[in-house]
Amino acid sequence: MSDSGAGDLSRTMAELARSVSGPRTLDERLRAVTAAVVELMPHETCAGILLISGGNKFETVAPTSELLRTLDHAQQQLGQGPCVAAALNNLVVRSEDLRSESRWPQFAAAAVDVGILSSMSFQLYTSEGKMGALNLFAFSPNAFGPNEEAAGEVLAAHAALALTAVRTEEQLRSAVASRDVIGQAKGMLMERFDIDAIRAFELLTRLSQETNTRLSVIAQRITERR
């Protein structure tokens, strides 16, 4: 990467670091990433993040152009494309010229029809049936070289950290909420049947096992039905 390109990347990362130091939503953080990666590319480029869950549920996040939704929808319908390949299997997927792309011929044809001639995608994470990729599409062939790939990898790591942080926060909130509702259910059982906390928890556990239902769901039903 040239000194100028390295300087641009350093400044961009510094700005991103400052932008996430205060309270911001996940969408705001990811939009900062996609805007930054587009700014760093030498050719006209649009970018977005594709999240895949439940096998075939596609969600386009923080697109710099509505064209991303069109391209992601095409990949969902066709079951092929660079974003899918990156999200599911590969860390980096690059296509120099979609007009001669043989890996995803149907998607490549659809992309060329709307003016997209090259692409680059970065895997963000894969876990528990959920996958994500940062995706760049350019209107000219051979738009992405080693320098652009290096810059994209840095920003993809930033996006992955933001997504991981949010997933961790959601898991913690869910754990706290489950703990609270289980505590409420235990209290209701203790009062209703005049038993101690250990017996109440044993009763909840047995109900969970016998009905093959998560403990938190059993507790929630008890608190709702009293």
TrEMBL record:
Q: Does the keyword Kinase apply?
A: yes
UniProt cross-references to InterPro entries, sorted A to Z:
ANTAR, CheY-like_superfamily, GAF, GAF-like_dom_sf, GAF_ANTAR, WH-like_DNA-bd_sf
Pfam families (UniProt xref): ANTAR, GAF_2
Superkingdom to which the source organism belongs:
Bacteria
Sorted UniProt keywords:
Kinase, Transcription, Transcription regulation, Transferase
Q: Does the keyword Transcription apply?
A: yes
Kindly list the GO molecular function terms attached to this UniProt entry. Answer: kinase activity; RNA binding
Which residues are in the ANTAR domain? Answer: 162-223
- Supply the PROSITE patterns for this chain: ANTAR (PS50921)
Q: What SUPFAM superfamilies does this protein's entry cite?
A: CheY-like, GAF domain-like
- Name of the protein in question: ANTAR domain-containing protein
Biological source species: Rhodococcus opacus M213
